[in-house]
Fold Amino acid ABC transporter ATP-binding protein.
Amino acid sequence: MLQAKTASSQKGHILVHEVSKYYQGLPALKNVSLEILPGTVTVILGPSGSGKSTLLRTLNCLEKADKGFVQIDNEFMGYTLKNNKLYELKEKELLKQRIHVGYVFQNFNLFPHMTVLENIIEAPIVHGLLTREDAIKNAYELLEIVGLKDKANTWPKQLSGGQQQRIAIARALALSPKVMLFDEPTSALDPELVKEVLNAIKKLASLGTTLVIVTHEIGFAREIADNIVFMVEGEIVETGPSDTIFQNPKHPRTQQFLSQVL
Ligand code: ADP
Ligand code: MG
């Protein structure tokens, strides 16, 4: 019998339980377990190919775990629980479940045929969460947070990469997610545009949304993270409070990685 292991009154509690994922028989995640508390900021570090993106994508079921499970606020991602049995969700129900887990891609993925405002109000209206009027009001508040209130009626292609990424963040926030996932949100940006996106993410952290971020921006990680997860070859080799990991990494691979980037 599967049962939710922990309960929390705050939203955005993530539990990863013994998750494995294979691609063509090769493991990308090997028995990964992790708990992320509501309102915390977790940064996932590790060399290329270590499974960071795969882990992030299993959190909102963009990838389905081959073994184990992910729970967000006691809900099984990709499944519904009936009479103590898990049943796989159909695509439509899965999309509904994903509403609560915002995902920001490396390459922004804004809808090119919609203005900035339309990009932000689309999902909350389609999912019936807000009336058009409220969605627009909400969108302006979000644009204020990411510092782009004057761009509401602009087309994505008229914006810089950094501005597009900030719009993508506002768009994800428009669904009031409990959790926001970021996969290398600044890696496609010119260096001078990185800071504005990182500042927008820092602002979110101060609002109390649970954030999980894959990034190679070590200075930013150090500044924003409550906890660090360090991955090597599909496994979490070290995890703990940011200060501890940065000041006193225990695992030789973490030590090696940090000595190269700090
Ligand atoms: P990271 O984000 O840390 O660079 P990934 O999670 O993207 O690592 O990849 C982990 C491993 O899984 C790598 O060996 C990668 O080649 C493999 N992998 C990831 N996605 C796929 C896929 N869609 N098909 C086949 N192999 C994949
Ligand atoms: Mg990746």
